[in-house]
Amino acid sequence: MRILLIALAALALLASVSCERRNVTDSAITSNVKGKLAMDPETSALKIEVDTNDGVVTLTGAVPTQAEKAQAEQIARDTSGVTRVINNITAGSKTNGENGAGVAAEDLMILSKIRARYVAEGIMGANAEVKDGVVTLKGNVENAQSKVRAESIARATSGVKSVNNLIVVNQ
Question: Are 127 and 138 in contact (CB under 8 A)?
Fold first, then answer.
């Protein structure tokens, strides 16, 4: 009986480690896809949501062109660990160009720097918008430290005039 209990406990432990590893892997895939989208000059990364479950990446959001939708899908497909891509992005719908065409080059440079730092530091869930050097942070993060760090990165970025931090901390 004791051996059976030990075996069951070991199986439960292995199952939890396996689930935890899968979740970490899915999180890493999501981070990698978001990072690649952020670094790609042809995609409006802030307008594209990325979710990963068991290696299957789901893309949602709205982008200005079909070419950008296709580019986002290709970036996801080319990411290590991705087994399949579900592309639910809408193209050509009512996007206002806040982070795409028509945005000042300086704002795009600021946005690119902020995104790169977020990816490098593993800040998940924080999104930035830039208009005339003013950064607005939105999204949901896991803890207060991530919210503070996201704002700190934005404030320290060259060219930023001010930061509005609207990030919500998940409870």
Answer: yes
Burial class (CB in 10 A: 0-12, 13-18, 19+), 2: exposed
- Contact between 152 and 121 (Cβ < 8 Å): no
Beta bridge partners of 140: 168
CATH, range 25-96 = 3.30.1340.30
What are the structural domain ranges in the chain? 25-96, 103-171
pTM of the entire predicted model: 0.45
Instruction: For residues 59 and 51, give the distance between their C-alpha atoms in angstroms, rounded to a whole number.
Output: 7
Question: What number of CA atoms fall less than 13 Å from residue 170's CA on the CB side?
Answer: 8
CATH (residue range 103-171):
3.30.1340.30
Please give the order of strands across the beta sheet that includes 84-91.
Answer: 48-53, 56-63, 84-91
SS3 154: helix
CB 77 within 8 A of CB 61: no
Of the candidates 100, 110, 106, the residue with the CA atom closest to the CA atom of residue 155: 110
Nearest to 96 by CA among 137, 50, 56, 46: 46
Say yes or no: do domains 25-96 and 103-171 share a fold: yes
pLDDT digits (tens, 9 = 90+) for 76-104: 999 999 999 988 888 874 434 444 455 67
Residue with tokens 């009512």: 94
